[in-house]
Specification:
seven-stranded mixed beta sheet; 5 domains; six-stranded antiparallel beta sheet; Alpha-Beta Plaits; ion transport; transmembrane; elongated; 27 strands; about 800 residues; alpha+beta; about 15% strand; Calcium-transporting ATPase, cytoplasmic transduction domain A
Length: about 800
Amino acid sequence: MLSSVLCKHCGTPVPSQREDGFCCTGCLYVHDLLHRQGLDHFYDLKGGLSLPPVSPQSLRERDYDWLEELSGNNAKLSAPLTPASRAETMELRLSLQGISCIGCVWLIEKVFTRQAGGLRVNVDVVHGDMTVVYAQALFDPVAFAKDLQSFGYLVGPPQEGEQRGQDKGLERRMGVCGAFAMNAMAFSLPAYFGMPAEFAFASWFDMIAAVSATLAMLVGGSYFIGKAWQSLRVGMLHIDAPIALGIIAAYAGSMGGWIAGVEGLKYFDFVAIFIFLMLAGRWAQQAAVERNRRKLMRDTSVPECVKVLGEEQMKPLSVLKAGVKFTIKAGQSIPVACRLLSDHAFVSLEWINGESDAQQRSEGQMLPSGALNIGTRSVEAEALEGWQESTLRKLLEARRPGEYRDLKLERLLRVYLMVVVGVGIGGAGWWLMNGAGVAAALQVMISIFVVSCPCALGVAVPLAEELAASRAERLGVFVRNLGLWKRLMRVRRVVFDKTGTLTLENPVLENPQALKALDGAALLALRTLVTGNLHPVSRSLFDAVGPGTAATEAEVTEVIGQGLQWRDGEGVVWALGKGAGSDALFTRNGHAVAGFLFRDELRGESVEEVRALGLRGLRVHILSGDREAKVAHIATQLGLKPERWISGMTPEEKAAWVAEQDEDDTLYIGDGANDSLAFDAALCAGSPVTGRSFLEQKADFFFLGQSLRFVSGLLDTARLHRRATRRVFAFSVVYNIATVVAGLMGHLSPLAAAILMPLSSVATLSIVAGTFAAQRQNEARVILKTRPRAQLKRPALA
């Protein structure tokens, strides 16, 4: 069972080893900052909603050069202010990471109003962006972005592309078809209430309903018909096929009945309303997933362009060939294998091979493709290969398979369609053989096609997806693939990467008392040294010290053999480097101030989670590129036998192992580029958010926080999702049998179909909502029984 203690800031479960009531140091920092600045109304607006945990990496120093260039404000802010320049306004659209609720919108607006020159801000939670309007000569976009970052919100370039266009297209279809549905319903109701055929405007009412249904077919019906046709062309049978069948049958019958003057065939209002409801369901189904996909911005450590020596303009990566000399900025990945031209460089290989220790390279040595420049300065290198041949390009361009094909569902749909078509045609034939007219036989056939459409499933399944995704968010997990829940039900093997996945992203400080003994000046100096540096020791000390004030315009230098140095305003030289008896020594003018010790540590509740997965009958494995001794130590802690872990693996070897062992039943969880190929070979895949990987952008789900206990929770949610959808399916079977029988007996008129469709949708929505609500009540009762009495009280806002 998951921890019953929830984080005071984000509301996700607190790892068992933390005693401060927060899931991570990022949430602790933001919680304290909100109270210090009098912004604790944020928690009243948030209510009981869970938020994404504030990853400590999101609070580290970031490069905002792109924002200066985008806004063009660097020259404006230094120019003399004139009445004309004060009046000049600019509008800027930016993407946002970290927004989840109305509390986030309120907080961002509060932060914006305290910026000089800010005129208006509009936050779009659904699309994950904001638009700011400001006086260009007074407003500093970078200062605003840094202010937001201190609260855990990251600002990025505006998101454009095909997916955003598809989202807006579906929204427009839904809105337009909603208007057509209202028109069709309004002009069909008089006939249902007994309007005589000879009424002067009766023909006009029919025409308006027909035109509304036709426009709904063109705008919205074409969406489902096109999807169904595309799936059939590639040999797939999608749920859009029975939807398209019902739409076409109802529209064709309605047009024929209108032309022939047969009232029993007019389903115009049904056509328009049905299309609107199906579009609304499809939009809701995709909206939650797209929100999660937009919660993370593209990884900025992978460069899109490089600075070629001797060239003024930045060049695309495609210009890199053997012999080309170029510059690698601090914090960026090395795009191709190259030879170092600078005197030295500090790199991290954990992204490529899982090796967690930082590496020092000297002039003339090789830098592998995908290594991360964790030094404080740019370095120069000579390419040994072209971009097309690089390992990093191959890993970046690897893609997971497309939409998951549920063969069982396809077989079920095939049988379902054959039965519906057979019953519809057979029923029409039976009525014709017994002396009924063609119109009556057609009404029977069309009514069966109409009521057999999976309209209830079309609105209930999206609700199940939304509720399951919301439940996962309370665990700190964000779903990016609609097929995840079905895939999770097939999982029989869970494979973990080690570094950054089973273990925490950064080593843990063993002697935090050394920090507590530092005075204010020493803390300022230490924070200045480690802020923005990507060395594992610096990252760990940053997390331990916590975000806060660092010296502005500080020039931190990197000295070979001595680590980082900074000279403060009084001429005191502070340094952080290696020292005897410690992993890192902090000095003042060469004299030791503090020594720090670090250790690799498992993520919270990893041992309990591996044990729990074993009790479920799942096989747990570790595939790592790290050294054998380190992997063996972690495997021993987890209680895994030697045959369940392998060390020193390359990306290709990981992928080959998964492909060989996988029986369409493997869940792979990893965080490095060396896991990319294995991701593509697995049934489903997840990734922690580290801020230096692109895997969360291609994973089926990503997770925040420091605990691994979510895996069991995710599997439980998949079972709950299946339970809800099975109940809806059972109801739909009973509903379809009853309505088909009524249709065969000739009792299913257009009015009955128009009434039954929304009623069945409401019933299935209630089934789904009731299933999830009952599970939540059961869990709440368990938590009340297990939680200590002192924790039942709401924590005071202090």
